Amino acid sequence: MLELILEQRYYLVSILLFSIGFVTLFLHPNLIKKIIGLNLMDTSIFLFLAAMGYMEGGQAPMIEEGSNWAMYINPIPGGLVLTGIVVAVSTTALFLSLTHRLYRKYHSLNLDVILMLAKKGREDT
Amino acid sequence: MIGLELLLLIFLVFCAIATVLCKRLISSIIIFMAYSAVMSLVWFLLQSPDLAITEAAVGAGMTSLLFFLTLQRINQLKGLEQDEDNTKR
Amino acid sequence: MKTTQNDNGWFRRILQWASESESEGADAPEDPEKQEFQEYLEYIDAHDYIEFGAYRYMRYQQRKELGLDEPTSHYTAEPPTPQKKQKGKKSHHKQGVLRKQLRWYQVASVLITCVIFWILCLVVMELPEFGALDAPAWNEVVQRYLQQGREETGAVNAITGMILEYRAFDTFGESVVLFAAAISTILLLRTPNQPLRQRKAGDEILKELSKYLLPIILLFGFYVILYGHISPGGGFSGGAILGAALILASLILGAGEVGRVLTSKRVTYITVFSLLTYAVMKFYSFYTGANHVGWEIPKGEAGHLFSGGFLLPLNLCVGLIVACTMYTFYTLFIPTEEE
Q1: Looking at the complex, does the CB of residue B60 fall below 8 Å from at least one CB of chain A?
Q2: Residue ranges covered by each domain of chain B
Q3: CA closest to C122 among chain A residues
Q4: I need a labelling partner for A86 at 20 to 30 A (CA). Which of A54, C53, C107, C163 fits?
Q5: CATH of domain A2-56+72-124
Q6: pLDDT tens sequence across A22-61
Q7: From CA B63, how far away is CA C59, in angstroms rounded?
Q8: How many other C-beta atoms can be found within 10 angstroms of the C-beta atom of residue C306?
Q9: Which residue in chain C has the smallest CA separation from B64?
């Protein structure tokens, strides 16, 4: 069991990080913490993908002339994650700007307070 | 080598839990920055230097900067100078 | 399952609000926040409807004029500390509907996460060993990319060759996603007629240091972009470095200095121009490649700077898009003079 855990350490850590981000996204009332949780989930999935592409003793895929293909790591997860990281930061910026708009209207970062105020405002108008 | 990997991975999990549990937002963002920096080391151990460069520039630099700027704007909106959570940079 | 014990301040406040109708009696509310909200409700009954935020800002200005400096904001950026006073009162409250819903929500979310974690653990135990070569991820696609990628794309870096040649359409989509995110952030955050806050002149030390550091960072960013098909790097990494360098420059030299050269209009023009150039170049190579016209760009000798056909200008386009998007985000997020 311990050997298996040691063997699959990257996968286990990535699902741990995924669960932490998931719980944060569900349970933390603060909007900024929710965005951090989403970022944690992002990076955990990237870690999982990159760990799938790794090969024991492999080199980074800078291909030299006439070399054996089995001595490099898998380039496909690398390419996917590379674009994913940059898209993750743009979605984070979008969420942060939405948070800022919410704060400008309701003067709170707490999602429950925001919902409460929105409900009150709808009833009063 | 496996010892270093385990150390970094445990640090990652620790950082993630600390980020979530930290009371002050500014501290949790700084911990998230450290998380990203360690993540770029992990990319390097996984033989992906491209990812390491990108993560170091984007994760540790851009994302936390955006968080800081948002906090600064929000605290400015509060109109409170004596607030404890002030993001003095 | 500690989260279900609802010992948080915010949670109890919600519950209080949920059972407000029962608890509101002759006694005045002790919670200043609640009191303020009550005042707000009375205010909008007497006057016109006004947003709560605007109301609070107005109250703050009034207090400032009167010289009362007491903090008015009870909505701190973090969940407030539990208030001991209300502990005894809680037992009198009838359980509202919202309370039951909230508890159900918390229990359900913890349960869902536990189940997902358990399933993922089972899956991980069944996965092929980490780092094994006989894993199913190692199929003929990878073999093709690694064996013939160097000849077919002319790139030494297999990742750049893959994302800009074999999967170029995908990368075009990613660039469009970046552009769309930048546009929607502009729509959400732009305040057209407000001047940028003039930061105080930075430290002398920072300024002197940046004189030597900034050119090196810019040079490194361009190096990473231009040599993306030969060494580790490429458009995405180098663009992020360039964007970080621009942000550093506008942090140190002041947002006005850099903003005079790189106005938001110019940044948008550069992004759109890069996207169109990317589209035209990839259209050309798809068209000629699919129809065997024979006008393909010569691949050159792999390992040299001018090799790999369109890889170098494509990398430059992607890098410019990423750098401009990062800089746009920064300029939109810096605080303005008056909100």
Answers
A1: no
A2: 2-78
A3: A12
A4: A54
A5: 1.10.287.3510
A6: 999 988 888 999 999 999 999 999 999 998 888 888 888 8
A7: 35
A8: 10
A9: C330
